[in-house]
Write a structure and sequence with these properties.
Blueprint lengths: L9 H14 L15 E5 L2 E4 L4 E4 L2 H4 L8 H13 L10 H13 L4 E7 L2 H16 L3 E5 L8 H6 L15 E4 L14 H19 L4 E7 L14 H12 L2 E5 L14 H4 L5 E4 L11 E6 H6 L15 H16 L2 H23 L3 E7 L2 E6 L20 H12 L2 E2 L1 E3 L2 E4 L7 H19 L4
Bound molecules: 4'-deoxy-4'-aminopyridoxal-5'-phosphate.
Length: 454
């Protein structure tokens, strides 16, 4: 593990935190109830505070530091680009932007060969929806319950997490349907094959009742991430592809979280042999060293905007610092076999390790995932599968998960906890020794969850 630098200084940490509490308004939080950790530095799979505590990052922050912290090649690329050209409007052709687009297009499936750059995932989703509506001339977009697509206007309404607020007015034309998820099947299927068939039939029925001629797009996360890392059954995505083709519906795969190595392939779609019409990406494209996202566009949809303008854009689309970090990240991932590492560690260490842990802990209902993209579904009882905490629990109702997370942190592991799940999503660069270290801490911390089983 790396040596923390700078030297721990609790007084500095306290000052950083006091200033944060005075002036920073945090995401997704009751401002008065949070206690953010003051971070002093990070390297590889670790970060540390000012008090001498170091954490193995099993969250990859927000599942984005696929290449780990402070990769020297990426840091150098940003530094060099800053010295050369910090900013230029999207309308110009520049070397790093062209190169980033080429490297991405080479890796996306099929003919997704044109790249529209954004500053992150939500903007990618907004623009994919805009493209689909312009292309088809149709208004509606279908998305799945138990999904996350971002926190901007269209993206948050497409999001099918079990959460709704008065600010999110169910924007005109968004229709939700159920995707497949055998462990908590809305179709009460007996096996994966039945779940796949029933989920596809349900989608067909939804389309029939909405009217296919009114549907611009179906958007799905290839492997839904935030809502629980639910690997779709074989045949499901191919089935959705076929339905989209039949009705002239644009198929959008959201690979913001699952893309760029997370699942052990460059894109999760590679596992299923499916090519969407539009593919959204962000996070792993440059591990978040500079904000970047985008939409990879099929030849057919790109051609639609050949002789008429695409009415959309962003001041910082294809920002040189972001593109330079993407070029360096993708090249380093290829040179250092980082995607292959994610596949191997997942298959040989994390998957088997989690399954073994699950057998010994009454609170672990299901283990699912692939690559470095895993979830433990925590339950009150393996028999009933009742979630360890209710959806959207906070305060005392969320105590079991809060205790589990605290136990992880005491052990030196930073977990990704969401509702009744903990996700095991370390950087794609994680070594076997680091993965085993993390699993051992997780194993011990799960006793805190076990204490709440019945
Ligand atoms: N789509 C997916 C699948 C995501 O996981 C996320 C972020 N968690 C987003 C979109 C939104 O990305 P951003 O936060 O960069 O706007």
């Amino acid at each position: 593990a790396p040596t923390p630098s700078p030297t721990p200084d609790p007084a500095t940490g306290a000052a950083v935190k006091a200033m944060d509490r005075a002036h920073v308004f945090h995401s997704w939080s009751a401002q008065g109830l949070i206690d953010p950790l003051a971070v002093a530095g990070a390297e590889g799979a670790y970060f540390w505070d000012y008090d001498g505590n170091r954490y193995l990052d099993f969250s990859s922050q927000l599942v984005n530091t696929n290449i780990g912290h402070q990769h020297p090649k990426v840091v150098a690329a940003v530094r060099e680009q800053a010295a050369k050209l910090c900013t230029i409007a999207p309308g110009f052709a520049v070397d790093v932007r062209s190169e980033a687009a080429r490297l991405i297009a080479e890796r996306t499936p099929g003919d997704l060969d044109k790249i529209f750059f954004t500053n992150g995932g939500a903007e990618a989703v907004e623009n994919a929806v805009r493209m689909a509506r312009l292309h088809t001339g149709r208004p509606k977009v279908l998305s799945a319950y138990r999904s996350y697509h971002g926190a901007t206007a269209a993206a948050i309404n497409l999001t099918g997490d079990p959460r709704r607020w008065p600010s999110d007015t169910a924007s005109a034309g968004v229709v939700h349907f159920w995707g497949p998820f055998l462990y908590r099947s809305p179709f009460h299927s007996a096996d994966e094959r039945q779940e796949c068939e029933r989920a596809l039939a349900h989608l067909e029925e939804t389309i029939a009742f909405e009217g296919p001629q009114s549907i611009a797009a179906i958007i799905l996360e290839t492997v839904p991430g935030t809502a629980g890392i639910m690997v779709p059954p074989p045949g499901y995505l191919a089935g959705v592809r076929e339905i989209c083709d039949r009705y002239g519906i644009v198929f959008v795969l959201d690979e913001v979280m699952a893309g760029f190595g997370r699942t052990g392939h460059w894109f999760a779609a590679d596992h299923f042999g499916v090519t969407p019409d539009l593919l959204t990406f962000a996070k792993g494209v440059n591990s978040g060293y500079v904000p970047l996202g985008g939409v990879a566009i099929s030849a057919r949809i790109a051609a639609d905007f050949d002789q008429r303008p695409y009415p959309g854009g962003l001041t910082y689309s294809g920002h040189p610092l972001a593109c330079a970090s993407a070029v360096a990240t993708i090249n380093a991932m290829a040179e250092e076999g980082i995607v292959e590492n994610a596949a191997e560690i997942g298959e040989k260490v994390i998957g088997p390790g989690l399954r073994e842990i699950a057998e010994r802990h009454p609170s672990v209902g299901e283990v699912r995932g692939l690559g470095v993209f895993w979830a433990l579904d925590l339950v009150k009882s393996k028999e009933t599968r009742e979630p360890l905490v209710p959806y959207n629990a906070s305060g005392p109702a969320n105590q079991p998960m809060a205790e589990f997370a605290a136990a992880c942190k005491r052990g030196g592991l930073w977990p990704f906890v969401n509702m009744n799940r903990t996700h095991v999503v370390p950087p794609c660069t994680i070594t076997e020794a680091e993965a085993k270290e993390g699993l051992a801490i997780l194993d011990e911390a799960l006793s805190a969850a076990d204490a709440h089983t019945v």
